[in-house]
Amino acid sequence: MYFPIKQKRRLYSRRQGDYPFYLYDTPRRNIAVGKKGGAEHLQKFNILNLIILLIISTALFTVSCPKPANISKIKQKQEDRLAIQRYIIGVSNENRSIESVVMGQGEDAILIMASVHGDETAGTALAFQLLEYLRKYPIILEGRKLMILPTVNPDGSVRNTRCNSRGVDLNRNFSTGNRVNSKENGLFPLSEPETRALVRAIRQCSPNRIVTVHQPLACIDYDGPGKDLAEHIAKYCDLPVRRLGAMPGSLGSYAGLTLNIPTVTLELPEEADADAECLWEQYGAGLIAAILYPQPADFSIHGPAAARAGKRSPSASGCFGYCQ
Ligand SMILES: [Zn+2]
Fold this sequence. Notes:
This protein has a seven-stranded mixed β-sheet with strand order 1-2-4-3-5-7-6, with helices on both faces. The relative contact order is 0.11. The protein starts with a helix and ends in a 16-residue tail after the last helix. It is built from eleven helices and seven strands. About 40% of the residues lie in helices and about 15% in strands. It is globular and about 90 Å long. It is α/β, with parallel strands linked by helices. The structure holds zinc ion (ZN). Zinc ion binds near residues 117, 120 and 214.
């Protein structure tokens, strides 16, 4: 763009040198520095300056605005800090992915899973709430590694059935001493791809403790050496510890009795499939307690500051009750 010299002086009234050179392309300067002189040379010089201005502006804009690729790198950096990794640990009978999220890199490994039974979906919502919480407060995972399996039985979840798409109860399909072969339990141990994927996940995670979220029995059950863990969790959520006994071919029998891993089944009530935030308010502290075990859970569902400020509001039973 070319400004007549009078307008130019009005717009940029300071001394030359106070602004970048491309603001001083006045006819006077061109005439002073030009060897050829004349209107033709002046026009060429202005076009050249315009191109330079355009290039510099484009370069500045490009540098200052993060590209989509850079944004994904920033996100990746944040995830690197939390050491979040996502795996597909297997596929279901109907070829749906069974996903795991691994956070933290410490030696104390914890495995939390949900929706082993496809019609018990409250645990999946709770697992995603836990993921969000840990993104906010990654300090909880210091010295720990957490593997979360939000949906072990994706076919059952889609169909809203307890069993998988072949009608097999995955929680009766593990290889255990008390297993019974049947059509509903599977004709042989680990007959289902979902169960085999879960066994691989346990081997990969090598957990010190396992929490599996079910419905609708409204209690905290345990298998193997899981009594202390169950009682610890019960201090932070409004569910009683109740021993249900080792079910044949169940995860509890496999992990708790065969592998000797403290295994707790968090049985949420049937009506627990309310909205996810409400679930978190009621049972989130129980999951946080399971992660921090055996340390006392000095993180409330609202974070460490809320815990210090006494924002936790224990009910008469010593548990948290925000939602009715
Ligand atoms: Zn169940």
